[in-house]
Amino acid sequence: MQDDRELLGAIAEGSKEAFQSYYERHARRMLGYLLRIAKDRALAEDLLQDVFTAVWLKASSYRAEQGPPLTWMYMIARHKLVDRWRRRSSREQPLPSEHEGPLRGFVTADPELSMSLERVLDVLKPEQRQAVELAVMGGYTHEEAAAALAVPLGTFKSRVRMALLHMRALLME
Q: Is the pTM of this model over 0.70?
């Protein structure tokens, strides 16, 4: 059985069989992730197609030194979702609650990352966790998130920066 890196290499060379294997391995998990974040089945299914189209077209852009293949694919998904949300004329998405934020969905979408991210998220101060959830996975720009939280932009950026530094230190342990 090929690992994800090998499959991406084969996909980059045009292997439909490798793509099919990669899709079968990850489509359900990715759809679950997109459903938790988008909270709209039709949107999640559209995004799933967009994500796997990007995997097919951009497999050669994957770099192992930048992280595992799933992380690369989740970042593609995040970018696709953010692009969709930004195209909307009005913001209909509610802010994530403290316990059901977008990073919580990401954590449960990949069991390999679950324990580490859960541990790190639980250590953050609530305002830092919410800032990271909005900025990293929520599809909000810093300006939008600061306005939604009714805090100055500089305060919001400081929260995100401090939270990410803290998370990085904990994950490096």
A: no
